Amino acid sequence: VDPSAQGDYSCWDSRGRLLHAVQLRLGHPPGLLNISCQVPSYMHVRCSWVDTVKTFLPSEYTTSLRGKDSKPCIVDAVRKHCDILHPAIWQRLHVLSVTETNGLGSKTSTLYFKLRELLKPDPPESVSVGQIVGFSDRLMVSWNIPSSWPQSDAFQLVFHIRYRPLGSRFWSEVSEGVRSRADGLRFRQRRRDHVSMQEVASVVKMKSVPI
């Protein structure tokens, strides 16, 4: 059928009365979905999917999460993702099935994943760098933990800091991960390598790591 045939069709009698109306929509049955999951904290999992077949038809999505003590995955059909709250983070394996259904059929796609391997905290927030008064060879770096990471003594983060002079290709790293939200950073400064505090701040990198 030619795509231009899509539209509204109706039948009328000789007196102009509507007998029947139908809407013709052309499309395809669902295909497999590409599913991926992100785990920004031990309290939240978000799984999203991308169509491999453009169906041109409205679809509904249902999910099923299998595993011991599994939680439901709450679907947002418009944004094509679902959220798992308070997942069984220590469970060895999870299996997520997503079924897409439209007027021409349905198709189920499955993803096997391990939450511990996917756990990746968001980066620190509000990172700032300033000079420590009275110490020309030190900087003070401060930050906030990611807002997506619930504060708990049982699940703490360590932070890794790298820095380099502006214009240099070589990074230095603080030898050990730090847990506090502020850290005194010592660096060797030469007059010919002098940069402003604003410039130094632009070349400090941090990342969060769960322990």
Q: What is the secondary structure topology, with strand pairs?
A:
Blueprint: E1 7-12, E2 18-24, E3 33-41, E4 44-51, E5 60-66, E6 74-76, E7 81-85, E8 94-102, E9 105-113, H1 115-118, E10 125-131, E11 138-144, E12 157-163, E13 172-173, E14 182-186, H2 197-201, E15 204-210
Antiparallel strand pairs: 1-2, 3-4, 4-7, 5-8, 6-7, 8-9, 10-11, 11-14, 12-13, 12-15
Describe it.
The chain has 211 residues and is mainly beta. It folds into two domains: 33-50 and 58-118, Immunoglobulin-like (Sandwich); 125-210, Immunoglobulin-like. Helix content is 4%, strand content 46%. The chain is built from two helices and 15 strands. The chain has helices at 115-118, 197-201; strands spanning 7-12, 18-24, 33-41, 44-51, 60-66, 74-76, 81-85, 94-102, 105-113, 125-131, 138-144, 157-163, 172-173, 182-186, 204-210. The strands form five sheets. Strands 3-4-7-6 form a four-stranded antiparallel beta sheet, with no helix packed on it. The longest helix has 5 residues, at 197-201. The termini are far apart. Mean pLDDT is 79; it is low at 180-202.
Q: How would you sum up this structure in a few lines?
A:
With about 210 residues, this protein is mainly β. Helix content is about 5%, strand content about 45%.
